[in-house]
Every structure is written in structure tokens, then in C-alpha cells.
Amino acid sequence: MQYLIIVLNNGDYLDEVLEAFLELGISGATVLDSTGMGQIISRDLPIFAGFKNAFSVAQPSNKTIFTIVKDEQVPPLMDAVEQVVGSFNKRGVGIAFSVPVIHIRGLGKSLIQENEQELI
């Protein structure tokens, strides 16, 4: 299983991204409002105010989505998100990454059992 994290620099795409999740059978995710470091530095630290233009691509706030999915679901999910927001390789789009899940509780017995059987 993988912990998938996606930061969307443009929150306007959130609904379309979540629709893509549903189309791929992912019905559970958490969405948080988030702020990038560049926004905080350019806004709150006077010494760095001159860098505001360097961070002009970033939105004032981002949307961070995270979910737990099966390993094989990660590439199609990332592809689907890029179909909506554009390539993550383009500056200002956001970031997506996953990390392996070693231990988990609270996800639901059937999904955990499915994953355990795949590991056997």
C-alpha cells in the first residue's frame, strides 16, 4: 500500500481531481488547505519581501490531498491528476509523491485484508 500526497498549487482544480479519484475507484481522501513556504516568507518576513516576485507562480493557498491506495493505483492516479492540472514537471503546478505504508490501522478491515493477502 502507498500513502499518496498531492499538493495542488491551484485549488480551482480540486473538484475535477476528486472526480478523477472517484472514476478510478478511490472514494476516500483527506483534503487540507495549505500554504507554501514561499507565500509565508514573502508575506510575513520583511527581509524576504523583495522575493515576492520569485514566488509569483504560487497561489496564496494550496490544496493538499492525501489518501492510502494500493501500489498499482498510484501511477494511474498521478496520470489522471496531471490530465486535469497539467504536468507536475511544470513550475507552479504542484507536487505528487507516494511513500510505502508499513503499518496501518483504521482503514477498514476488508481493504487491509486484501493488501495482506497480496503480500503473502
How would you describe this protein?
The protein has 120 residues and is of the alpha+beta class. The two termini are 14 Å apart. The protein has a four-stranded antiparallel sheet with strand order 2-3-1-4, covered by helices on one side. It contains four helices and four strands; from the N terminus they run E-H-E-H-E-H-E-H. The mean pLDDT is 83. It is 34% helix and 22% strand. The protein has helices spanning 14-23, 37-44, 74-85, 109-119; strands spanning 2-8, 30-34, 62-69, 94-100. It has a single domain, classed as 2-Layer Sandwich (Alpha-Beta Plaits).
List keywords for this structure.
22% strand, alpha+beta, globular, 120 residues, four-stranded antiparallel sheet, 34% helix, Alpha-Beta Plaits, single chain
By secondary-structure content and strand pairing, the structural class works out as alpha+beta
Q: Can you tell me the CATH architecture? A: 2-Layer Sandwich
Name the beta content range. 15-25%
Q: Compute the CA-based radius of gyration.
A: 17 Å
Helix content: 25-40%
Catalogue the unreliable spans: none
**Element order: H for helix, E for strand:** EHEHEHEH
Q: What overall form do the CA principal axes indicate?
A: globular
Mean pLDDT: 83
The end-to-end distance, rounded to whole angstroms, is: 14 Å
Main-sheet strand order equals: 2-3-1-4
Biggest β-sheet, characterized? Answer: 4 strands, antiparallel
CATH topology: Alpha-Beta Plaits
Q: Any idea how many domains?
A: 1
Q: What's the CATH C level? A: Alpha Beta
The total of helices stands at: 4
Extended strand count: 4
